[in-house]
Amino acid sequence: MRTPVACVAAVMMGGFLGAGPRVGLGPGDGPGAQSAAAPPGGIAKSSVRWVRTEGDALALAVTVEPQAGWHVYWKNPGDSGDCPSFELTLPAGWSAGAAVFPRPEAAILDDGAFYGYSRAVTYLVPVRVGPDAGAPAPKAAWSLTAKVMACKGMCVVSTITGGGAWPPDTAGVAAVKLAGGTFEGRSLPVPADAMGVSARIDAGRVTVEGPAQGRGAVRFIPDAVPGMQVPLPEGKPAIEGTVADGRFRLEFRLETPGVGAGQPRLAGLVLLGNEPGDPCVWLAVPQEVPAPSPASVPVRRGASEPPPGAK
């Protein structure tokens, strides 16, 4: 598997390598999908719409349907391809969070690991309001520019755009549970601690355990973390574990941990079962906190013991 390069899973500013077709969406922003004309380059159709999340927060739902035989990507694309990016412009006081990627397919494609989607998928970009946000201006607006790579023998990056008045209308739209819910037939990742999943790393050996949620199969796929290397079994796109007595167990080797400020030692997705709607668990093991050096450890001295340097 190639050396992972951190794929921006949050809203980002900037461009992609190469030029691709541009798909323009209409200005409406109601609860209905805003469908774009079918572009060339592997995407049959796309749409952008707003949905509500827990607590009446908002998320922008970007739906992409690849053409037959084409595919788009998860946050770690695998051995080739690239993940999508989302550049979202919002009124003052609002900000976008990291994109939520639904449970992907894991397969061997062109002799390499592939993590992504060969059928329609909806990426969700949550937005939140800051404490200093006031009432929106009379002509407040939002806009989106998304870059999505689709591949089938060759790869093409398409640009999907959308926008409209602010605030968007989400009347009548059912709320989406971003952490552990299901949206349009695909499960959304639930944090490991919320599912009772634990992980330990001992001398490079990783053990992950937790409830199997009634499923009889479990697999692990790594995220693209700078420096992190998780060897996969020969000819397999994922690490397979065991299920017994209602619990699963995964064991594998962490060749090198993630490096860099804010990066985890290990991160990836636990796939329970084999269906798109079966649960998936987001696992991230933080960096170890180094023990303080002896020079920084305070020393308690007795009443009769003089301080350093005293005579």
Notes on the structure:
- There is one protein chain.
- With 311 residues, this protein is mainly β.
- The protein has two domains: 22-173, Immunoglobulin-like (Sandwich); 190-285, Immunoglobulin-like, CATH 2.60.40.
- 1% of the residues lie in helices and 42% in strands.
- It contains one helix and 23 strands.
- The chain has one helix spanning 192-195; strands at 22-23, 34-35, 43-52, 58-66, 72-78, 85-89, 94-96, 105-109, 112-117, 121-129, 141-152, 154-165, 182-183, 186-187, 190-191, 198-202, 205-211, 218-222, 239-240, 242-244, 247-253, 266-272, 280-285.
- The strands form six sheets. It has a five-stranded antiparallel sheet, with no helix packed on it. Strands 15-23-22-18-19 form a five-stranded mixed sheet.
- It is globular, with a radius of gyration of 23 Å.
- Residues 2-38 and 299-311 have low confidence and may be disordered.
